[in-house]
Design goal:
The chain is α/β, with parallel strands linked by helices and 122 residues long. The chain is 27% helix and 27% strand. The strands form two sheets. The chain has a four-stranded mixed β-sheet with strand order 1-2-4-3, with helices on one face.
Length: 122
């Protein structure tokens, strides 16, 4: 897994340079996933990228695809287990606009993937 991790880190460096300082993205290199999951388990990933604006996500994921950089999407971190060895790729966490919820009336709610389940059901 270490060889794979180094290979992906090299690809990630090019993407990180392009997006560093972009409004709407927060990049945390070498994030420990145990701090971002409900079960408080999980090892290191190449980077955790918080996406705050929905307009940024499509282009960012296309860039990840262009560079053949593995990625996974994360909402609030419930219902997910991350191996203690981590993931040799980038975790894209949906925050900001994705953590918003709207009451639509008639007992209907529109919710982003980043909304906490406890907030959704309250």
């Amino acid at each position: 897994m270490e060889g794979c991790r180094q290979y992906v880190q090299e690809k990630w460096k090019s993407i990180e340079k392009e997006y560093a300082g972009s409004p709407g993205l927060i990049i945390t290199p070498q994030a420990e996933m145990k701090f971002y999951t409900t079960w408080k388990i999980g090892g290191r990933v190449i980077a955790l990228v918080d996406v705050l604006k929905s307009t940024i996500l499509p282009n960012f994921l296309l860039k990840m695809k262009d560079f053949n950089c593995p990625w996974k999407i994360l909402g609030r971190g419930s219902n997910i287990l991350v191996h203690d060895n981590g993931f040799p790729g980038v975790v894209v966490r949906l925050t900001g606009e994705y953590a918003e919820m709207k009451y639509l009336g008639n007992d209907r709610i529109e919710s982003g993937a980043g909304v906490a389940l406890s907030h959704l059901v309250s």
